[in-house]
Amino acid sequence: MRVNNTVKITSLAAAGLLALTACGATTAGSTSGGSEPSSSSSSAAAPTASSSASAGSDGAAASSGSYKAAAWALPITDKGDKLGSMKGDSFSVDIYQVATDVASKDSMFLDKETKENLLKKGAPIVYVNYVVTNTSSADIPLSHSLVTPSAKYTDWKYLGGMPSDSSSDGFKKYGLSSSGVKLKEKDPFVLKPGESFNIAENFGYTPGKEAEISATMTPQDAAGDLDHDKKEQAKTTVTLK
């Protein structure tokens, strides 16, 4: 089957072609959600915003739920629908669908052949929050990359991940963060046993659609470099509400 590439729009013109690169790694474990696949890569239905989360910016609000936030982490929210969870050797990730909204602007990526934008302004998007917990008995020193989650619809035909709305307004609106770390905190970010942090992303929304979620964790070593020998990945499949 032929795989389409994408075109990246620069501020001057939509001239250059950009091929998104795929990421591959072995998985450590998963907990599967439901399945109801859809062949559509976009939704014509206008979304409605879900209720917003109570957690806010840089310690301004308390965490919700039973999670224990690391000292360097932003408040944790468990608001929304829990879609599933996944587990690596030393960490777990709970996945929450928090809210739906619309994209504030066109994405930077086009279909190479049709020239259609892969996430147009006004298209429905969904905000998904990931709560990462250290399930081991040892401290985990993390870099600024923390644990990197990524969602991709199971029928996504392009190489690489899905485009998102990069505006910070939506994350603030729903009490979410795309970084997970308080301002002025410095690495290593030591995640102690039983402690958690959360990090969110958004992407194009189609209700009832199946998505593959993966999360990669690469801890720091004593020299402050990434310890790729201890890299872990978890993966699962969930169905959006």
Summed up, what is this model?
The chain is an all-beta fold and 241 residues long. The chain has one helix at 168-173; strands at 6-8, 17-18, 68-69, 81-87, 91-102, 109-111, 124-134, 140-142, 147-153, 189-191, 195-204, 210-217, 232-239.
Q: What's the total number of strands?
A: 13
Strand order of the largest sheet: 3-11-7-5-4
Number of helical stretches of at least 4 residues: 1
Oligomer: single chain
Q: What value does the average pLDDT take?
A: 81
Strand content: 25-35%
Largest sheet descriptor: 5 strands, mixed
Radius of gyration: 18 Å
Distance between the termini: 30 Å
H-E string: EEEEEEEEEHEEEE
Ranges where pLDDT stays below 50 over 5 or more residues in a row are 1-60
Bin the helical content: under 10%
Output the structural class.
Answer: mainly beta
Question: What is the molecular shape?
Answer: globular
Describe this structure in words.
The radius of gyration is 18 Å and the shape is globular. Strands 3-11-7-5-4 form a five-stranded mixed β-sheet, with no helix packed on it. A three-stranded antiparallel β-sheet has the order 2-1-6, with no helix packed on it. The protein starts with 5 loop residues before the first strand and ends with a strand. It contains one helix and 13 strands; from the N terminus they run βββββββββαββββ. The longest helix has 6 residues. The chain is mostly beta strands and 241 residues long. The N terminus is likely disordered. A hairpin with a 3-residue loop joins strand 4 and strand 5.
